[in-house]
Amino acid sequence: MKKREAVKKETKSVNDSQNTNVAHNGERHQLIAIKAYELYERRGCTHGHDLDDWLQAEAILNGQNDRAGA
Predict the structure, then answer these.
(1) Residues 3, 43: Cα–Cα separation, whole Å
(2) What Rg, from alpha-carbon coordinates, does the chain have?
(3) What is the dihedral of CA 16, 21, 23, 25, to 10 degrees?
């Protein structure tokens, strides 16, 4: 019985950390989207550069401002 309880605790711990990672990934995705939209607006709302905006926003949030040149 004690072994079963230990397995349950370990499984719960793994599930909690996975849920935390998913939440962080969701938050990160949202931050990138917001920054990409800011870049889109700064460029005068011209279409056709969504991937560039997204990659630049990722670089900015990763602290790689050399690519962020805006």
Answers:
(1) 60
(2) 19
(3) -170
- The amino acid at residue 32 is I
Residue pair 53/36 in contact by the 8 Å Cβ criterion: yes
Contacts of 5 (CB under 8 A, 6+ apart): none
Higher pLDDT, 59 or 6: 59
Instruction: Give the per-residue pLDDT at 24.
Output: 83
Name the packing angle between helices 50-61 and 2-42 (round to 10°): 120
**Is the full-model pTM beyond 0.70?**
no
Evaluated on CA atoms 11, 12, 17, 22, the torsion sign reads positive
